[in-house]
Amino acid sequence: MSVGRSGTCLLLVSVALGLASGVTDQAKFVKEPGQKIVSNADQLVSFSKPAMSNILCAASCRIHSDCSLYHFSPVTNICATFKERSSFDPFTDVVFDKDWTTGYLSNASSVRRGSWVLVFRGQSRIGVPVYDTWVNTSKHDDGPLLGDFPYACLRLTDYKQCNRHFRSHIVDKWVNIQEARFSLVKADTEVAYIVFDATGSDKISWFSQNRILHSTWSPALDTANDLQPVNMKGNCYKNSICRRFQIYQKYKYCKSEAFYTFTVDMAGDSCSESSWVLRDFSTFPVFLYSPGTGRCSIGTDRGSYILGDEADVMSVWVKFV
After folding, report:
1. CB 118 within 8 A of CB 143
2. Of 243, 239, 272, which is closest to residue 260 (Cα–Cα)?
3. Dihedral angle at the C-alpha atoms of 154, 155, 160, 166, nearest 10 degrees?
4. Which region is the signal sequence (predicted)?
5. For the chain, what are the domain ranges?
6. In this predicted model, what pLDDT tens digit does every residue of 62-89 receive, in sequence order?
7. What predicted TM-score, i.e. pTM, was given to this entire model?
8. Is the peptide bond before 74 cis (omega within 30 degrees of 0)?
9. Nearest C-alpha neighbor of 317 from the set 73, 93, 112
10. Residue whose C-alpha is closest to residue 182's, from 169, 168, 197
């Protein structure tokens, strides 16, 4: 039976009403304001309506069994729905565009983008340690997603209202995982990443230098032989100063130490008071990273190293075998 134009409109309205009355579009899609799809997705339909909205665009995607993502512009009222190709990579096949919002289909137990599954997302400066959250086996925010969990804490854009970390049950069932992606986001844009070979690893050991496949800082990072041990647990001093997810070189003086990334996971650091350019660590976690292709420093005597920066979000994604 064919569905005419008016029938299609009625169907969209019915789906939208269903979305609005409890099963929201956010219950099916994770929305990313400021993103537009540009490649590696097959367009199913594209149309423009004066009264088009994000919820109607999501509904349009839901009525197609092959649809897994969409984008919508309130500026042009254009809605386009897509089927992902196997090679779709949400980290490279979308671009930043403030006039668009992209919606990614999620299910009851996970947030997915292409073949990547979100297992952890940390928000900066909310006063909750990321490492303690990562190893906390009693914290599961999915399976199904908790009804009161803020969707701002699943996004990589428009996340200013996020006030907690997200941890998936997958962290505690670390099996059949092929790759893990450590990602840092600032101002709605991924600014640094590392992809690790996670085959045969556990939830701690995958974060290791000898497992790095490629990164923002490759090839320098891959072969560096003067680093502190690259690991997730990092170092804690007197239970009050903790550096986690650490990748930085061995050093003698705080003012000249250089790094690729590390997380200040407690309020303060022994180097910050007089030896670092960045000194406000009263709130935590603080995700520090190099904005270039090599090492950086936040020391007062950093020499030729570029100045390090602070990210807003840290996330971990996995691919299964």
Report:
1. no
2. 243
3. 20
4. 1-22
5. 5-105, 108-321
6. 888 888 889 999 999 999 999 887 677 7
7. 0.76
8. no
9. 112
10. 197
